[in-house]
Amino acid sequence: MRQLAERRDIHIGAAVAYEPLAQEQLYAQILGKEFNLLTPENVMKFELIHPDPERYDFLAADFLVDFAKENAMRVHGHTLVWHQQLPGWVVNGKWNRDTLAEALQAHIAAVVGRYRGRVATWDVVNEGIDENGALRQTFWLKNLGEDYIEQAFRWAHSADPEALLFYNDYGAEEINRKSDAIYQMAQEFLKRGVPIHGIGLQMHITEDNPPDLEKVQRNIHRLGELGLIVHITELDIRIREPVSKAKLDHQAEIYGAILKMCLEEPACQAIVIWGFTDKYSWIPYFFEHYNDALIFDREYQPKPAYLELVEILSEP
Ligand code: XIL
What we know:
The chain has 316 residues and is of the alpha/beta class. It has helices at residues 2-7, 18-23, 25-34, 46-49, 59-70, 88-91, 97-114, 139-144, 148-159, 177-192, 213-225, 245-264, 283-286, 304-314; strands spanning 11-16, 37-40, 74-81, 121-126, 164-169, 198-201, 204-206, 229-240, 268-273, 290-291. Helix 11 (213-225) links the parallel strand 7 and strand 8 (229-240). The longest helix has 20 residues, at 245-264. It starts with a helix and ends with a helix. (3S,4R)-3-hydroxy-2-oxopiperidin-4-yl beta-D-xylopyranoside is lined by residues 41-42, 126, 202, 234, 282.
């Protein structure tokens, strides 16, 4: 799959967990062979990489970044500013606007700076806009005020001027209030010279109710017209239990249609799957009665979805 993707000039990635990469040979082998982009699923999140005010823990993130380098994979950093997986010292700290801004800037400078030249693209802000298109009421918005998003992009840019910087969100795949707000924010940032280069569409979707890909394509197209790159950053297609052959085939069709749509849009430069083996997936822990969202099964065998992706990539 990886070689075919490279011929089609698209990045195919997977979110990667530290333990299986460190412990399971097969996991590492398939990852390096089948994908040319790696997103750390958790280990670059604030609570893991910066657990105490004076202490960063880069061990696991370094391990993933080193693996990517050895296997000539691109790294997509995830994520600098998010309201989840924050350490206690941040959420319970005594802050005013200036001291918190200083702490966030220092965090961004340390993390982006460490991986300067090794992480090509960053999710700078994750999930900052709500379903109605307003700024999401998060710890960051409440304590830093409305300009925290652009500030974060500026801080990330000065820590690595070469890195491409993304705003990432879910539920903004089609044209809707959230994706309109993201479009307007990005347009405004570009007008004012805020360093934003891409939009990440997470795409955690279901086999029984997938999005309208024609609308997704229109959304990607309009972002491309602004001069932005688009990545599908966290694709998975969860299946309602019980899983059946028909559902797995339908899931494969959806994976294939998404890839096809992405290949048609010059702005769409990467598809990252949120994991690759159903052995390790966040789905059963977060969505009751759903599972089997990925492209390899629990025994690391390719599923119909994998075969469909290969087939689409093989087309001339
Ligand atoms: C999820 C991970 O997959 C889980 O392992 C973790 O427990 C919670 O976070 N949107 C995101 C990702 O941007 O960071 C989330 O990842 C899934 C939803």
